Amino acid sequence: MRDKQIEDLKDYKYGFSTDIESFKAPKGLNEEVIRFISNIKKEPDWLLQWRLKAFERLKVLKEPDWQKPKYPKIDYQDLYYYSAPKSFKEKPKNLEDLDPKLLETYKKLGIPLQEQKRLNGIAVDAVFDSVSVATTFKDTLTKKGIIFCSISEAIQKHPDLVKKYLGSVIPITDHFFATLNSAVFTDGSFVYIPPNVKCPMELSTYFRINASDTGQFERTLIIADKGSYVSYLEGCTAPMRDENQLHAANVELIALDDAEIKYSTVQNWYPGDKDGKGGIYNFVTKRGLCKGKNSKISWTQVETGSAITWKYPSCILKGDNSIGEFYSIAITNNHQKADTGTKMIHLGKNTKSKIISKGISAGKSDMTYRGLVDISKNASNSTNYTQCDSLLMGNKCGAHTVPYIKNKNSNSNIAHEATTSKISEDQLHYCQQRGLNQEEAVGLIVNGFCKEVLQQLPMEFAVEAQKLVGISLEGSVG
Amino acid sequence: MEQKLKTDFDKFISMSNFSNQEIKLKKEALDNFLKNGFPSRKLENWKFSDIKQIIQKNIGELTFYNDYNIKNEINDEIFIKEIEHNKIVIVNGKVERLSFEYEESDKINLTTLENYNQNPNDDNSLLSLNNSFSNKIHNILVKKNYSFKKPLIIYQITNEKVSNTNINFQLMFELEENSSIKIINLSQDNSEKNFINNLFNFNLGKNAILKNYKIDKKSNTNIKYDYSSITQKENSISETFIFSSGSEYIKNEVSCNLEGQYSSAFINGIHLLSKNKHHEIRTNTNHLYENTKSYQLIKSVIDDSSKSVYQGKIYVDSKAQKTDGYQLSKAVLLNEQAEFNAKPELEIYADDVKCSHGSASGSLDEDSIFYLMSRGLDKKTAKELLINGFLLDVVEKITDEEIKKLLKNMIGLN
Fold first, then answer.
1. Does an H or E element contain B339, and which?
2. What is the H or E stretch that residue A182 is in?
3. Cα distance from A409 to chain B (closest Cα, Å)?
4. What residues of A are in contact with residue B360 (Cβ under 8 Å)?
5. B365 at the A interface (CB within 8 A)?
6. What confidence tier does B144 reach under pLDDT thresholds 50, 70, 90?
7. What would the mean pLDDT of B13-25 be, rounded to a whole number?
8. Nearest CB to A422 within list B339, B351, B359
């Protein structure tokens, strides 16, 4: 039965594209286009000025080139920076007005937008190319005072919050891709959890790139006010196309005193075909700020898709006693490349961080863990623990570990460990002896290897992720 | 600086008697350095220390011309008395004495070379600088099946005759099949504010054994860059030990190419720093063939506002199956102003390998101090005892008993 399952899953099952008429901004990156985006979204002037300032800054910035996976130069003038289903000139008020084709798309992806069909309570914000198409379970959330909507809506309805926090973690003066996003970001999710509220359900965003030649630049802003808690999930897919598509999102998290944010990602963008043609360039900036004391931010990521993954979800531990965590599984197969890791910047006293990273490379792929742990002078009594393990399958792939460790405080401790190995013959032999075939045995061992991270994921995601781990490695053994 | 480099270079060439071929090579090296300049933080290998700035801050204007015609007196007092040894004495970058009195003279071949052959893809501009300004390069060849009877001590001396000067020095060793040598490289600096750029090259033949111990203990204000390149054939062993403590700034770089199967490289190092000192060790072990092994252990004790950096990379080629690589760096910070930076790196392209690294930094363990104090030691003694034990771990890795004893006394660890 498993063989059939594998056969079904072997191909990238999200590779279809939706034939829907889209409405795009003119091609290219210039002030006109930025004004166009800002105008169509009916944005206030301060935001337009903010975007233009970012664009000014972008002109002097150079695209970074220190990363391990190299890619052909991107022609930023040859991209569409805004694409929306045509029926979206006026955003539909409710799901009945939504283009049936869109509903069909999300059904195929397994993301039900109709609330009544949803058994487990997860509120979803679905982003299609450049716009957010639907947000579910709004009423339940509103009762608790939780704001969960698209960022465009938040700009209209909660401008004070947006103005206060947008760019406070990733300023417009940041690196190239982050600044590009600041200039042209189109949509994304906005979450605000009021003081002392524990969000009753998982919040989730689903990103989908559909149109060709389009870059996706979404912006997510999550604010957990004092004493609140939220768990947020993110999933992504894209159709199979021969060309490479750019995805440069910015995610900003802010946790105030005693608040906790848990951010989980299962990234399954189209990875390109077996020969490395096509696929998504996933150049995302994710950063969380533990602003208040006793706050906590935890990133969990399962990275299986994308032609190139290049991201470092980071935590700035500013508040005293704050905690940052990073759990990651990154799997590369065929010609995929990944350069991912995290940054833990300890600024406050008694701050703690923990990094668990598991990398698996197979086929002709290349994987790098790159991380920074920086304990500043004032961060006394801080601790960090890092563990990064890599698993190699075959001798045509690579696995690299590049940690940067900076300790400027004598009362703080940093411990770092890394190992690289292959699946041991003994383990394989043991499993096979008990009747598993080689692929099943490998699947089992890999799952065990990843267990520490998989445990961190919310239940529904963990099941999906576990399957993904198996599928991503198909055909890499033997 | 460019003008200064050019005039100093012309003066240097006119005062020396190099062949036309040598002058040509030196010119090329100079052009290469002029093109790249001193390394900056932008280069990954120099991320934690901006040598250009360090030179400017500590030395100011540098003179690149170094007069090799001056004859320097050697005071025999400086020689180590505890053990019998062969000597190479280098004063201000000039080889003043080469004596292999304990060895069979027909087993050693001494020659001079034109230039260190820098890999064209190597962007290390300090090697180019060294190539353009270094004096005659001595090459020491140890013949097949010959083992040195006594250790060789290289006395690297600077005296008060030089200051604000860039001293470039190179020395080459060729170890033929089944040969072995033990070297102690001893820095004795009586000068202030110079930039000393050293390059040592070792080629190890089949079954050859190199033991190389580098000691920088005497406190001085010189800035140093010390590069050792080791190439190893089948079944050869190299052991490098670095004690780095005296100079104001020193970057020790060891690059090992394990080209033959069953070859192994061991690099152990100690940083014992105080005041404003800033020391760095960078190791680069390249596993290029099956069944090779490498091991690195670096420990730092950092006091006052000093800074210790360790950058270590293990590279495993896709050919190098069954590689065993291990790396560990540990640091103890004794003062709030102290700083430790590390970048332990693994770059691996083969699957059947066992590679791991670990890095830990922090304060001395309070529990251990408490334990010792509860047994009647005062805090200072307790701390000293713990530091002693912490560093002794590295010294114990020295495989030559005689030298281990000598170095323990010299460093003051027991």
1. strand B339-348
2. helix A176-184
3. 6
4. 413-416
5. no
6. very high
7. 85
8. B351
